[in-house]
Specification:
About 45% of the residues lie in helices and about 10% in strands. It is of the alpha/beta class. The protein has 2 domains: about 190 residues, Ribonuclease H-like superfamily/Ribonuclease H (Nucleotidyltransferase, domain 5, 2-Layer Sandwich); about 120 residues, Leucine-rich Repeat Variant, CATH 1.25.10.10. A 6-stranded mixed sheet has the order 3-6-5-4-7-8, with helices on both faces.
Amino acid sequence: MAKGRGTADIEAGYRGTSAPPVVAPEWRSRLYIERPSDLRELAKTLSKAAVLAIDAEFVQLRVHHPGDPSHRLSLLQFAIDDDHRTSWVVDALRLYDLSPLRDPLESVGILKLFHGISADARMLASRGLVARHYVDLEAVSRSIFGQSESGLQAMLQRACGVRLDKSLQRADWGRRPLTTAMVAYAARDAQMTYVLYGWLRDNYPWALGLHEVAAEEATLPVAEWLRPLLEGGRGRSVEMAVAEAGLSGKTQIVTHDLRAALAMARHPTERTRLFRVIGELGLKGMADELRPYLASLAAEERATAARALGRLHDADARPSLQSLAHDPVEDVRLAAHHALEHRASAAASKVMREEGGAGKPKRWTSVGDDAGDGDSPTENDWRAALRKQFGAGGGGDDDDGSGK
């Protein structure tokens, strides 16, 4: 059971149904590419593929200058739709020029597969390579099963009952020569990414469709102050971004920019980042735009919309939030639970403010106030005892009932 930040227990894990597993195939051969001529031949082979699974291994740099990358690309691994005949491991340390890979990676007709694209994309870019027309299977898995179930290890267990050997996860990928075990380990992740794609394609095509990024997709044309927030910097303060743009207190402009961005957003990752901004800025006027996403197919949209609406204390979302408290995905259940807590806390605070404004507020005090606010005899008794103990007398003339 998972505790929800001091609240009632929430059942852990995915509680819904799952598509039946498949038998994972075995690749018949694995090629290690360390010569330019072999790399050029590989590029020709990859260019004929329709689907290309990609993985990468990095080496951490012990010494680097400020602003320089902290990691260097060590290996690139590939698997394609060739009936599991061959997978490849490219030695990116020994091969200085990786430009032959540019054409297949940028090809519009080839769907590139990643599992967790952010770090891999940065490493590719460091060598002048960009993958176009791609899908991140980690994001796809998160939409179906939630954040805690989206890792490659967890998904392979679900999809084909395979448990990956992670004993070499922290190996030194900068060493040469690599051992046979290290090469096999590296190739395995690309192979299994391809297997996972097949299972998701056959059972959850809607989720793949949500996250597939077309080659021609351009960066969202959003307001400049929003761009860094949409590019993934969760450590960046939303309030600071608004202040630096000179928009503090200009709610109408901020709301207009967010509405325009939300209308243009194409993928769950973009929308959930916008939901966070709306929630953190407390833009209650945008609750109407958020509420429909409580019924989204994508789990991260349901969860993030729930959190944002909780922060907005949106009363109209309550029935949907109560329903989401029983969602199959743990992230969504937790988000709904906390949103309902936010709502209950806001309602309690409102009642206290209204009661305080209706008449004289109650005060706990050790100073006499015999006129009282309708205090019971028991309350007066303990007050009298405190007055006697501290020598306050029988309620002096200077007492104004303030407790001071």
